């Protein structure tokens, strides 16, 4: 894991002191809200519906156990005993007091954490693969590159006031877990024909009110040019991105309006200059950063563990957890354990302070003291011995973190929605809870199989609804909560944008509508066919007929 | 006839507050000063905007329930403002203490405590 050097440390602690003074001036009335708002946003402090909200960066989703304990301490001391993992691998506190915020940030700085660039029109937290470093299929460790981009983009003076926020993802695996094609810039690690490492560079992906899949701006960028090429893209965007209209200011609109070929030409032209400016790092610096992400010393273990197999047979819930939540590890005898933050009837992504502490302790005991955060709002313990898996699951289950539902219908991505968010049009979490209860039966969930169900409370799409196999978008219709259904979205390497099916459903109807979609799928799927494959085979028609045929009958 | 009250978030902690008859800000919408005539509404807003310890004051439309009853109950017109006044709907422990019956957080959902707390 990356460790701060003296520059990182002083940068973060100086910022805390600066903000402490600014908060003091706001509380004394010396600063107006108009003056203070951009300052607090630069420090991750939003004002939401019921209270302030502090968004803390978790660079590429990687946490040490002391950091997790500190987050728990902050939740307990300064908040209401819980926190919320976001859809961008960050964490949010929902109830901090303004006057406590400098103290919270000081606490966080003691474990090398901060809230810088978690808001505002700048380069946000870099997304990386939550299985980085332990996935047998990966070409290279995406954390190394995400860390280099983090350092380059932190307080980058030229890119602090972009036309709009800017999100970058890096994936090193052929199976994308980062939603790389839905980022402003997506970086896919690959080899060229001669075996040299580099990136396919995508640009202009995004969700929000205009969902777009990223386009390839460069088929292969040699690794040593990463920063200069990023700088070239950002420069072109900084000059040409629309500042006149907030809704057209993201780079995806520039790509759409300019065309990818014209944009590529501009980027390449800019790059020919930037490349000469010495932005790129010497290999020695890349190696220094890489040295923070080297493999731990793994035990030499057999491929199989007898007790692991026996326990799955003896304890069916554990068997289910193994099937849904464990993923193969690159080392024999180890597994990757996904910790679901989606208990049936819970708020997706929410964890209590006690749960955070439990995860920190379990990470120390079973997974080399590290925790990863996935953008699906779950946690990952990446280095678990097969022989420890049962003990780990038992202890997770004691704190309601053992739900065997990863990648199943109850593993719902949901934004905070109107229960917290000032932008939302409708609530997300109660809909997620009702859906989880409707599909609570695990036999049924496993029968339905692999499925992503994503809910956003407004068109800004923090709940990634367009990228869900089933998506739900909350809308306000004449002062009532309504929910628009989308089908066929996907966030992986075969990214697709969900299509709206028919008119929106009322709050009372939406759960039944999802069940109708599921029942339709179950009745028409081919043997072993996942929901998304059935949808791609049949299109929306059978689902539409089931949904709106029924509705017409009801109306009649 | 439109009844309006002034609301904002408290500067120190962001909590939702309503401007009362006594010029103080209250956490409870039932305490809110109701303006009906245009000039009263304008005066309410300018008073709210001049207040130093709140953020983003604005007016919302309300109805008054059971005016003949024992206590006055003020109901924001939109569900968004009702969630703001009484919510969040998913954490009863953190919702306002005096949630009136007319706030039905769930056409909806029996509100639950998350993750066992």
Number of domains of chain B: 1
* Range of strand content of chain A: 15-25%
Question: Fraction of residues of chain A in helices?
Answer: 25-40%
N-to-C SSE string of chain B, H for helix and E for strand: EEEHEEH
Number of strands of chain A: 21
Span of the ends, CA to CA of chain B: 44 Å
Short description:
Chain A has 556 residues and is α+β, with helices and mostly antiparallel strands. Chain A has 18 helices and 21 strands. In chain A, strands 16, 17, 18, 19, 20 and 21 form a six-stranded mixed sheet that branches. In chain A, strands 1-2-5-4-13 form a five-stranded antiparallel sheet. Chain A has a five-stranded antiparallel sheet with strand order 3-14-15-12-11.
Describe the structure.
The complex is a heterodimer of chains A (556) and B (117). Chain A is 38% helix and 17% strand. Chain A is of the alpha+beta class and 556 residues long. Chain A folds into four domains: 6-109, Sulfite Reductase Hemoprotein, domain 2; 134-293, 2-Layer Sandwich (Sulfite Reductase Hemoprotein, domain 1); 306-362 and 374-398, no CATH class; 413-555, Sulfite Reductase Hemoprotein, domain 1, CATH 3.30.413.10. In chain A, strands 16, 17, 18, 19, 20 and 21 form a six-stranded mixed β-sheet that branches. Chain A is globular. In chain B, strands 3-2-1-4-5 form a five-stranded antiparallel β-sheet, sandwiched between helices. Chain B is α+β, with helices and mostly antiparallel strands. In chain B, 36% of the residues are buried. Residues 104-117 of chain B have low confidence and may be disordered. Classes of the chains: A alpha+beta (556), B alpha+beta (117). Chains A and B meet through strand 13 and helix 14 of A and helix 2 of B.
